[in-house]
Every structure is written in C-alpha cells, then in structure tokens.
C-alpha cells in the first residue's frame, strides 16, 4: 500500500494507479496540458475537479522539494503549491517504484515554449525576461539559492500587459537566512548557461526571431538583474539637506512593486550626509493593497491597473470625501463584478477575471477613441467578448497552442511532434577516433614494454 504524505489529504487520490509507472498511466487519468522539458517523467492528472502535476522522482528529492515548496508558499513567493508525496510504491511484481510529487496545476500559466510561436514580438520576449529577473530577485531576497535557473523551470502568467513568473521545479533549491554575493553569482552563472541553451534550442527550431541573439539575451538578463538588485538593496548616500530623497527611494521601490519593511538610515556626526539602505524589502505592494480593499487576489501589475481604475472611478463619481474602503466596495459592485458576470461560462477559461478586466479597459479606450465618445463599461464589455475574448485560446486547462503539427504524445509535449525530424530515428554517429580506439588490443596495451621505452630514449 503506498504511503501518502499531505497536509490536506484527498480521498480521491486513493484509487489512482500508483502501482503503475507514471509513464504508463492510462490516458483516462491524464490531462493534455503544455509543460516544459523535464529530466523526470511528468504528467498532468485529473483528480475530481482539480488538475495536479505529478512528477516521478527519488524519495529524497521528492521530500526536499515538497517541504521547500511549502516554505516558499508560506513566504508568499510565486511558486507552485505542493499537494503531497506518494511513496512506498510497488509494481505488480513487487519491484519498487520512485515516489511521485504532486503539485497543483497553476491555472492560466504557460511554459515558455507555448509563448514562443513563429513571429513572437521582441517586446513579448523582453517582458518574459523582465518577469524572470523579478522572480530571481524575489527568490534571492528571501534567501533561496535556486541552483537550477532555467526557462523550463518557470511558468508565466499574463499580468496586465506584462508577465508574472512562477517557480516550478525546486528540487535543487536551498533556503538560507541570507544569500552571499557568491551564492547569488552562482545562480546567475547557472542561469546564463541554462537560458542560453533554452534560447539556442528555440533558435534551432525556428521559434526565435532572427533579430534576437541568445548571447545578447542572457547578457540582458544579467544586467537587468544587477540593476534591480542594486535598487532593492543598494546603499545610497546624499547630503543632509536632501532628506526628501529617503521618501523618493521608497516611492521608487513601491513603483517597482516592492514594499520597504525596514530601512537602515545612518547620519554623519555633523549631519552633513545621510546614508540609507533597504534592509527588508517585500514584493507585492499593489496586490496587497488591492486584496485589503476588495478581496481580489491578483498579480502585481493587474492590481496596479485595477487600482488606477478605482482611482478614476472615485474621481468620476465625486467620491473623494469617502473612505477608501467604501469607495473600493462601490467600485467592486458597480464596475468589476458586472463585467465578470457578463462573461459567458464557456469563455471563462480564456483569461482570469483580473486579466479580462485589464484587457477590457484597453478595448474600451480604443473604442472610445474610434467612436469619439466615452463608451459605457458594459457596452464595451459586450464588444470585447465578441471581438476579442471569443477568439482567444483557452489558457485555463487545455492549451496546447495553435498550429497544424500534431504532438507525438499530447500528454508528454517534450517528446516533440509527429513530423519533427528530431523525433525520428537518426543513424548512429561514427567518430573515427573512437573507431580506432575500438581496434586497440586492450590486453596488449596494458603490458609495460621495457624494450620499447629504452628504444624511445635511445638506449640499447
């Protein structure tokens, strides 16, 4: 009988075929979803109304990753949510099988390969790089050395014109009180090698624009990370007559989506200079404020956009004198909820509600400019549903991506396509140097020939 480790046990897991290797599970248990390339067997499985990611891995790694993901979720870090570990598995012959780590499928999130289609815009690639840089900086701020930074280990969610990145694979991660510069440097070096390989692979497959150079992009990642890290943690020194620069530093961090929980301020003996350094920086400035006001749990840029619309609503309705929480409740019932309720159920899998509202605001602005009038919100909502949302791919569950090629196995996208020459059987590579080695008589070569050595040194 398998052993189940889970904080929230689910009886629906019990009848699943745990005695079968994950690669051989029947299709009726599987869900076809895009995923990145993995060194382990990974499948998406349906458990009631939920979809879980299942990864077959040895017990030490499974338990380590399960506990580390719990720590990351406790620290409100963007990472997948652990569900459990299924160990003590045996097949029908009594042979041991590797444990399975279960995590929740992150809805509306896509691996990078699903976002790189022929003709992808350079701006989209730039936003993906920014999202990855922010994720790496957030992980380093809490003391996590990832140890396996790559695009394959990240999921991306749309975030109001940008992207939010989530950690997927944490089996090599180590959580410390604080990272040294050497540990951060080590993570960046790993990122350079792995991400260069990811982009080179895309380039070879014709999925990367010719103007995008893999080496230039990994250099860009490193420079952007350095700039962000310096802004988040760097020391700033200025004249004692400029105390407003303290507030300016805090505002800049808020604009980047970070709160300053602790600021180290040193003043010289004569008060001529002030030295400041953020000591505790926490991401999620806008999303926390929106959650406090409305109860909506969104990505950071989505929260920023919705808060801007809330401020516009407050000004338009003349509610400046009311408490912010009261205004937020009225905005929620007058604007956000009517829009979400107008979306047909069959289209709700296209985008998450906050992303729909953001895209609707863009659509409404363009329509208002085109028609030279202010288009009402619900009227714009009907147009957005008809013209935009209905034509978008479903990103909540089945989102294998557009294209005419057929996957060799829809439940294992890493196997490639049926018409992909890289998935065909290729002739063995013959290396002449290795062929010569095969012809060597190892028994004869292992003997020490004293006579040959003497002749080589010119001795009789």
Question: Any overview of this molecule?
Answer:
This protein is an alpha+beta fold. Helices cover 41% and strands 17% of the residues. The chain is built from 14 helices and 15 strands. The strands form 5 sheets. A 5-stranded antiparallel sheet has the order 1-4-7-3-2. A 3-stranded antiparallel sheet has the order 8-10-11. Strand 2 and strand 3 (50-56) form a beta hairpin. Helix 3 crosses helix 5 and helix 10 crosses helix 11 (377-387). It is globular. The relative contact order is 0.08.
Topology overview:
Blueprint: E1 3-5, E2 41-47, E3 50-56, H1 59-74, E4 82-87, E5 89-90, E6 96-97, E7 100-104, E8 109-111, H2 112-115, H3 122-141, E9 144-145, E10 154-159, E11 162-167, E12 174-175, H4 181-204, H5 214-233, E13 236-239, H6 244-255, E14 258-267, E15 273-283, H7 285-294, H8 300-316, H9 324-341, H10 353-371, H11 377-387, H12 432-438, H13 442-445, H14 450-456
Antiparallel strand pairs: 1-4, 2-3, 3-7, 4-7, 5-6, 8-10, 9-12, 10-11, 13-15, 14-15
């Amino acid at each position: 009988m398998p052993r189940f480790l889970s904080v929230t046990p689910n009886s629906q897991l019990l009848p699943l075929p745990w005695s079968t290797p994950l690669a051989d599970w029947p299709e009726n248990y599987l869900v076809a979803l895009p995923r990145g390339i993995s060194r382990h067997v990974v499948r998406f499985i349906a458990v009631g109304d939920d979809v879980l990611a299942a990864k077959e891995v040895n017990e030490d790694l499974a338990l380590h990753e399960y506990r580390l993901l719990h720590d990351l979720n406790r620290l409100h870090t963007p990472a997948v949510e652990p569900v459990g570990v299924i160990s003590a598995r045996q097949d029908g012959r009594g042979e041991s099988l590797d444990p399975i780590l279960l995590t929740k499928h992150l809805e509306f999130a896509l691996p990078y390969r699903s976002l790189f289609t022929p003709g992808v815009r350079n701006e989209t690639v730039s936003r993906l790089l920014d999202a990855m840089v922010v994720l790496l900086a957030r992980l380093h701020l809490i003391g996590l050395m990832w140890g396996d930074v790559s695009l394959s280990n990240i999921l991306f969610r749309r975030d109001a014109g940008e992207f939010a990145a989530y950690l997927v694979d944490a089996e090599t991660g180590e959580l410390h009180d604080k990272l040294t510069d050497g540990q951060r440097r080590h993570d960046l070096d790993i990122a350079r090698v792995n991400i260069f390989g990811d982009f080179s692979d895309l380039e070879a497959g014709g999925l990367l624009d010719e103007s995008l150079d893999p080496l230039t992009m990994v250099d860009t990642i490193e420079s952007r990370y350095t700039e962000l890290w310096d802004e988040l943690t760097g020391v700033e020194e200025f004249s004692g007559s400029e105390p407003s620069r303290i507030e300016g530093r805090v505002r800049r961090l808020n604009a980047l989506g970070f709160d300053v929980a602790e600021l180290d301020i040193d003043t010289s003996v004569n008060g001529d200079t002030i030295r400041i350094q953020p000591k505790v920086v926490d991401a999620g400035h806008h999303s926390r404020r929106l959650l406090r006001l409305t109860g909506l749990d969104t990505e950071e840029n989505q929260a920023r956009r919705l808060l801007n619309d809330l401020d516009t609503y407050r000004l338009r309705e003349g509610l400046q004198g009311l408490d912010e929480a009261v205004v937020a409740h009225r905005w929620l019932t007058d604007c956000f909820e009517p829009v979400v309720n107008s979306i047909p159920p069959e289209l709700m899998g296209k985008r998450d509600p906050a992303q729909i509202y953001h895209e609707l605001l863009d659509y409404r602005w363009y329509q208002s400019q085109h028609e030279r009038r202010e288009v009402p919100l619900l009227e714009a909502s009907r147009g957005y549903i008809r013209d935009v949302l209905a034509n978008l791919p479903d990103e909540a569950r089945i989102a294998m991506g557009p294209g005419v090629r057929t996957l060799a196995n829809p439940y294992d996208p890493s196997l490639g396509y049926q018409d992909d020459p890289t998935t065909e059987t290729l002739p063995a590579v013959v290396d002449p140097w290795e062929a010569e080695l095969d012809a060597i008589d190892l028994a004869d070569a292992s003997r020490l020939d004293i006579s040959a050595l003497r002749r080589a040194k010119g001795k009789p």
